[in-house]
Each structure stands twice: as C-alpha cells, then as structure tokens.
Amino acid sequence: MTREEVNKTMDEVFQDVFDDEGIHVTESTTAKDIADWDSMMHVTLCVAIERKFGIKFNMDQVNTMKNVGEMMDIVLSQVS
Amino acid sequence: MDIVNQLVRYIGERHPMQEKYLEKGLAALSAEDREDLEKVIEFFAVKHTIEEMGEAYLVFVKDTINETKYFVENDYSRYRYATLSEVNGNVYQNEAYMSQYMLGLQLSGYLWDNHRQILHWFREEFLGYEGKNYLEIGPGHGQYFAEAMNRGKYENYYAIDLSKTSLDMTKEYVQRFAKGSHFELVHENFYDYDPKCLFDAVCVSEVLEHVEDPYVMIKKIVEITGEGAHIYINVPVNAPAIDHIYLYRTVDEVKDLVQKAGLKIIKEIAVTGNGWPMEKAIKHKSAINYAVIAVK
Ligand SMILES: C[S@@+](CC[C@H](N)C(=O)[O-])C[C@H]1O[C@@H](n2cnc3c(N)ncnc32)[C@H](O)[C@@H]1O
Q1: Looking at domain A3-79, which of 1.10.10.10, 3.40.50.1000, 1.10.1200.10, 2.170.150.70 is its CATH number?
Q2: What is the DSSP secondary-structure string of B240-295?
C-alpha cells in the first residue's frame, strides 16, 4: 500500500467514525482540528483503523500519537 | 507559572489527547473552582512533586483508555473484569496503585466537565437535608465526604471502604479540608457491614459499578436507613475503568434498579462524559454520568 492509498482509506475511516463526509485528513491533522476527536473517540478511531487495515496499535502508540501522519507511519510499518 | 498550569502542562506534554481536553477543562473552571483546585494540588504537594501528580493522573487516564479499548473491541458489550477478586488485589489493596488512582480521580473532579458538574450538583442538591447519621460508602479520595462534613446538617459522619489506602487518604483529606471533627471511618466491605445505628443519609458515589451485584447493595442500603432517609447514588453508564466490573448500558437500567429496591427518585441529573448532547452519547455508547437523589 502506498502512503497516498493509506491516506485515502484513513479519510474513509475518519468520515465513518465521526459521521461526517466533509472530513479530509492530512499528515498534520491533529485532535485539535476535529471537534469530536476526544479520548473516547480516539479509541473508537484506533479500533476502526486496526480493523480496516488489519493492524494492531500497542497502548503506548494509542497514548502518544500526535497526528494522522504518525498513525499512517504505524499502519505502513504493518501492512505490506 | 502557577501550580495548576504547571501540572496541566506536564500532563499535556506527555499525552496529546489530554492536552486538548484539559485546556478546555481549565478554561471552563470558575474562579472559585480554580481556587479549590489550587488548594487540592497544594495539599497533595506536601507529599508529592508536580511530576508525581502528573504521573498519577496519567496512570488513571491511560488505564481508563486501555479499558475503553477493550470495551470498544468487544463491541461495547462487556468490561474486562466482572468479579471483585479480579480487581481487589491489583487495585483496592495495592497501596502504590490505589493512591495514584485516587489522586488522578480527584483531579478529574475539577478538570473534567462531567465530574465537576456532578460534584456541584451533589453539593447543591444533596447537602441541604437534615438528620442525625450520615454514611458514605466508598469515599475513595475523601472529597465528597469532606464536602458533606462542611455543608451537611448531620451530627455524625461515617464512611466505609474496603480499601485501607482510600480510608487513609480520606482521613488526611478530611483533616485538612473539613471543618467538623466528628467522623468515623470503617475498614470493611459494605456487604459485611453491621452498623449500630440507622442512617438518615447515604452517599454512594461511583461505587455501584465496582460491585458484582448492585441490587443487593442497594437493598442493604434500604435496610440500614430510616424512613424518609435521603440516598445519593452516582453511577457511570458505559464507562470502562480498571476496576469497573458491573456494566450499566443505559440510564434506565440504573433507574430501574433503584426503584426496584423500593426507593423513590426525587431528583436526577445525567451528564455526558464528553459534553455531547445526550442522543449523540447514547448513539456512540460513550460515557454518561447519572446521579439521583432517592428517598426511602
Ligand atoms: C471510584 S472510588 C469512588 C470515590 C468517590 N466516592 C467518588 O465518587 O469519586 C470507589 C471506592 O469504593 C470502594 N469500594 C468498592 N467496593 C466497595 C465495597 N463493596 N465496600 C466498600 N467500599 C467499596 C473502593 O475501595 C474505592 O475507594
């Protein structure tokens, strides 16, 4: 999977989780850019990404990832 | 930088999700709440550094997130643990862990909108009644107990907790913050409690999700209270945490339980965990704090 493909799929996951088709994420998108992105939704999001890509985040990653770019790094390190 | 900002900054630098949340929480604090929070942090600062307080809060938050992940992965159907024996040793009887956990929980009483709203409601709505004997089950950090001693109109105040750490913390907190001095702390599981008096008021806040059979606990509360007694019950719905073993899926489930035990609900409040409108929280199965005042 390329980075662009991951980004595109991320968009779908975000739109689905936050119930908003207007959302488009970039590498630098953070929780501050999406009003509903709080701790609880962060977990929902992480689980949705895990399921979509067939990957696994460890708890340290869940707690420290700062932006979508970091999420994409983790996804890319686990998908072929 | 004042002590509150120092603490919030320490946490935010280590946890991006908390940074956003706490900035919002701090901005929403009234001057009075902020002053109270400062006093609480100063009180903890006698024994702990800002870093230790920040770490305690982070332990509480991270463990809650970990349990939330389990909950979401299991399609919101269950908490990880279901029995007291699974959590008692690791949490309640583990002094190092429990003291961090209770410190974190207490800070959330100011920094989290939902916890703060519920605390205000408790103060304003529950502490106006009168009577002789007041009991709190599971005081934890002791903040509710101290509030009751300061504002309540009772002669005797009792608190029972199965955690020695909680009782030690409650004692220190009350000695520092409560005006009255007549109180008694009982180290026991409430299910085994055999009190020598009837109570006119009982506070059971964030405890009924820590027990295997909440109906039996409420029935026991009914047994040890006098006619007309006021009972404050605060329970989180869909709120995973390291020691939550009983899952309430809806506010109505809690309501039914209280009414089934023979109590009459006279006041209630429901607050969503993240400030969302109620319908949205229900749809996403995110946490709701529900509190009632019931009369026997
Ligand atoms: C989450 S704390 C609640 C602290 C405080 N009341 C609040 O609302 O923030 C739960 C407390 O209940 C105590 N507890 C749990 N089950 C209990 C039981 N069966 N009998 C007595 N105390 C219990 C725990 O040890 C802990 O101190």
Answers
A1: 1.10.1200.10
A2: --TT--S---SHHHHHHHHHHTT-EEEEEEEEETTS--HHHHHHTT--EEEEEEEE
